[in-house]
Amino acid sequence: MKRNWGAERCEWAYRAIRPRVLFEELLEFGGELAIDYDFYCFDGEPRFLRVLEGKWGSDKRATVYDTQFRLHPAKLAKLPFHPVSNERAAPPNFGRMLEIAAKLSRGTDFIRVDLYNLGGRVVFGEMTNYPHAGRRPFSPPEWELTFGSYWVSRR
Question: The domain containing residue 40 runs over which residues?
Fold first, then answer.
């Protein structure tokens, strides 16, 4: 309660938030913690997603897919995640997840929309304009250009 996580992690939007304790639903399905589906959206168009498994455990796994759920070699550098061991199929209601991510991101040049799919029940996680405070590059480096190529400034 005494740490200012916004200041420590250089995330200006969180610096002035008064610390509080919040409780929320434990997101699990079949006894396992929910899988994160992080959609990278550009002006209402989801382009890629990162699937995170075991986010809070010792066996963290993250893999990048396109919106057709085809595996891509991109990853966020300097994060302690391993790729998933096997390519997985799209989750139930994946089309609905894409629709929700598109609708939530419409009118914003870039935003990451995080969703969960609990046996077909889509649950909202968060939205962020600067994942990891913008300090985690994609690897290999050419993916920085790929992701950035979809970003069209409105200024």
Answer: 28-148
Domain tally, the chain: 1
DSSP assignment of the chain: ----HHHHTT-GGGTTPPP--------EETTEEPPEEEEEEETTEEEEEEEEESTTSSS-EEEEEETT--EES-EETT---BPPSS--PPPTTHHHHHHHHHHHHTT-SSEEEEEEEETTEEEEEEEESSGGGG---EESTHHHHHHHTT-----
Report the CATH number that the domain containing residue 64 is assigned in CATH: 3.30.470
Query: For each of the chain's 155 residues, which pLDDT tens digit applies?
Result: 888 877 777 777 777 888 888 888 888 888 888 889 999 999 999 999 988 887 666 667 778 889 999 888 777 665 556 666 566 788 889 999 999 999 999 999 999 999 999 888 999 999 988 877 666 777 777 888 888 888 876 66
